[in-house]
């Protein structure tokens, strides 16, 4: 299940729980397109709760839309992932290592407000 959270014009903020569907991925990509059209840098806040799977039928469409973003990675700024599952935090750290020019941080659920402040304003604890 996907919930879009209120955020600034240069921020994509989402809460994802349970199963991630193709419709969820489409909604995220639509929001990303909107933010990239309005802002030079895009910051991302993702809060996950109990992810138990990804609907495979939606991945092909998502990948088709996501591939052109590899040429725009310099447009991404701060990315915060708040996760209650270790595998999500580990996956985020792996992605961060592969994309060292994007500023990633992972947070525990009780650090949610700090994560959101860092994404929206660049405040919070230093790396």
TrEMBL record:
SUPFAM superfamilies: SpoIIaa-like. Pfam families: SpoIIAA-like (PF11964). It comes from the Bacteria. InterPro entries: SpoIIAA-like (IPR021866), SpoIIAA-like_sf (IPR038396), STAS_dom_sf (IPR036513). This is STAS/SEC14 domain-containing protein. It comes from Sphingomonas rhizophila.
């Amino acid at each position: 299940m996907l919930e879009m959270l209120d955020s600034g014009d240069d921020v994509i903020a989402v809460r994802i729980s349970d199963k991630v569907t193709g419709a969820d991925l489409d909604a995220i990509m639509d929001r990303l397109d909107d933010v990239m059209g309005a802002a030079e840098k895009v910051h991302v806040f993702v809060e996950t709760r109990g992810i138990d799977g990804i609907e495979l039928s939606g991945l092909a469409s998502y990948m088709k839309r996501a591939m052109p973003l590899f040429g725009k990675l310099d447009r991404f700024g701060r990315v915060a992932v708040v996760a209650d599952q270790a595998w999500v935090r580990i996956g985020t750290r792996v992605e961060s290592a592969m994309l060292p020019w994007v500023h990633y941080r992972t947070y525990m659920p009780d650090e949610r407000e700090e994560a959101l402040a860092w994404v929206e304003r660049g405040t919070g604890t230093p790396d």
